[in-house]
């Protein structure tokens, strides 16, 4: 396995663990979301919305962790990549379309993580292609 893919796997585990922590925070106290993320409309944040956000974040966390374990699984890799596109779209839409979030550090952090993850995973696809080609050459 290439060094890049090893680093990418570590990154995915780290992001997964952080997301699991955010999940716990969302279930424990919905004020977390109104204070850190949806600061432009904190009145719209309630317990139900926080728990829904928590479940979505937990699902993303599990998918990303599974991808780190089995990074050569193409389907899982693409689903993981999609979770980052989905997160990026969500936070951008909350800032620029729905205006429920402001560009604070609480929103900038997930935007940067999603952006860096998308770039890393797109680069990682190239490494996976090279590995697949070299495996096919060895078989033939």
Characterize the structure shown.
With 140 residues, the protein is mostly helical. The chain contains five helices and no strands. The protein has helices spanning 3-28, 31-36, 47-69, 74-96, 105-139. Helix 1 (3-28) runs antiparallel to helix 3, helix 1 (3-28) packs antiparallel against helix 5 and helix 4 (74-96) runs antiparallel to helix 5. The longest helix is centred in the last third of the chain and has 35 residues, at 105-139. It is elongated and about 65 Å long. The two termini are 20 Å apart. The mean pLDDT is 95.
Summary of the model, kept short:
The protein has 140 residues and is mostly helical. Helices cover 81% and strands 0% of the residues. It is built from five helices and no strands.
What topology does this entry show?
Layout: H1 3-28, H2 31-36, H3 47-69, H4 74-96, H5 105-139
Helix pairs in contact: 1-3, 1-5, 3-4, 4-5
Q: What does the main sheet amount to?
A: none
Radius of gyration: 17 Å
Number of helices: 5
Tertiary shape: elongated
In terms of DSSP E residues, the strand content is under 5%
The N- and C-terminal alpha carbons lie at a distance of 20 Å
Describe the structure using short key phrases:
140 residues, mainly alpha
């Amino acid at each position: 396995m290439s060094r890049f893919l090893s680093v990418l796997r570590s990154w995915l585990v780290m992001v997964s663990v952080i997301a699991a922590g955010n999940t716990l925070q969302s279930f424990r106290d919905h004020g977390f979301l109104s204070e850190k993320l949806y600061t432009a409309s904190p009145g719209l944040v309630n317990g139900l919305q926080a728990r829904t956000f928590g479940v979505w974040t937990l699902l993303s966390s599990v998918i990303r962790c599974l991808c780190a374990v089995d990074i050569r699984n193409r389907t899982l890799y693409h689903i993981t990549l999609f979770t980052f596109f989905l997160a990026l779209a969500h936070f951008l839409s909350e800032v620029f379309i729905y205006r429920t979030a402001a560009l604070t550090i609480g929103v900038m952090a997930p935007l940067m993580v999603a952006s860096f993850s998308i770039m890393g995973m797109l680069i990682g696809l190239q490494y996976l292609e090279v590995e697949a080609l070299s495996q096919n050459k060895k078989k033939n």
